Predict the structure.
Amino acid sequence: MSHPFQEALPVLEKLEKHGYKAYFVGGAVRDYILDRPLGDIDIATNAIPEQVMSIFEKTVPIGIEHGTVLVRYQKKSYEVTTFRVDGEYEDFRHPDRVEFVRDIKEDLARRDFTINAIAMDKEGNLVDPFGGRKDLENQVLRTVRNPYDRFQEDPLRIMRAVRFISQLGFKLNSETEEAMKHQGPLLEKIAVERIAAEMEKLLKGTYVHKALQVIKGNLIHSYLPLFKEEKGLIDACIKTVRNPVRELYEGIALFHILDNRFSIQNWCKRWKLSNKIKNKSQQLADTYYCYQKKGLDNTCIYLLDEDVIPSFSNLVKLIEHHDVKEKELKERFKQLPIHSLRDLEVDGQMLKQWFPDRKPGPWMKNILTQLEINVLKGEVKNHKESLKEWVLNWSQREEN
Ligand code: ATP
Ligand code: MG
């Protein structure tokens, strides 16, 4: 068994020692069989949350109503969830209530896809009532039980399906695909935040190009904010996005660049994205437009935060199919004479001293902006004396 499972093994053993059944479940089992890096390790057990909490020293009741307790064990966290089936999904939100069940097979039956419905015990034996292992081998994505019902119960599964295609490169089982096409309109009923979380994973997936084609082929874009308003956008994406993005904000910048009728503000509002994402997308787009006009000029590189550099490099590669090498960009960034206005060796106080007759006002900001640009262009050194000389000359010219 691989290392992360080794570390989690004592958690299963402890539950079993207390007389309960316990299994690894969900994405970790799938990724283990596929020999992919594991995400979070989830555990299913027939112990109810109170029992789990009494067995382990450090627990956090993160979702008791759904049967989930977070267990901290040797500095790692595991979500331990009681075997359960879901009640009715009213209003396409979370199930109203869940019901605990005795058998792992019943728990596996509530899961979305066969490849996600495999349990593994501490010896590595699989419980696989829906043929998940075979689907993993054949690289097929198929819902557990009837896809029409499963997409109806929770339409998010449609988005999950395309994001698994993007991550794994699998093909859709034909019934699952038909149901997806049919039930697509239900996507408009669910919270956009849930869709956005899947979209992010989709855009970062190795097979994003394939996933975008599946979206178009099944008209899923017709039910996604903004994509539904400009049908050509999905084609533009398919044409452009041949490789994954590194960050969601990179995707948002790209969508905006591909069709600038939708501003970044617009995207973030409709997809309910954070201000942080909005700011980074805007920064990327501004830098891209600057780059289009002036090439790799210092004044463009200056618009970027250091952590956004890899995304800028990737964005240019996606759109223009040529490289702005990340390493070169980082080097250029490091060599910028200033990285923000605060780095200028002059401030408002000094300006007031140099122009004792002037009242503070917009002229100060104006001068600082001029200095910023000219320092970046290498026209003037970022030393107090040189700056002063430049400012006095400049203002004389302005006055004449
Ligand atoms: P990731 O690697 O992105 O974490 P995952 O498969 O583990 O992928 P999670 O969202 O962490 O996905 O969910 C864990 C498991 O819970 C899934 O593997 C699946 O069995 C089940 N599951 C999650 N969301 C749903 C859903 N909407 N409907 C049915 N089952 C779900
Ligand atoms: Mg997971």
The domain at 1-138 is CATH 3.30.460.10 (Beta Polymerase; domain 2). The chain has a mean pLDDT of 95. The CA atoms of residues 58 and 170 lie 39 Å apart.
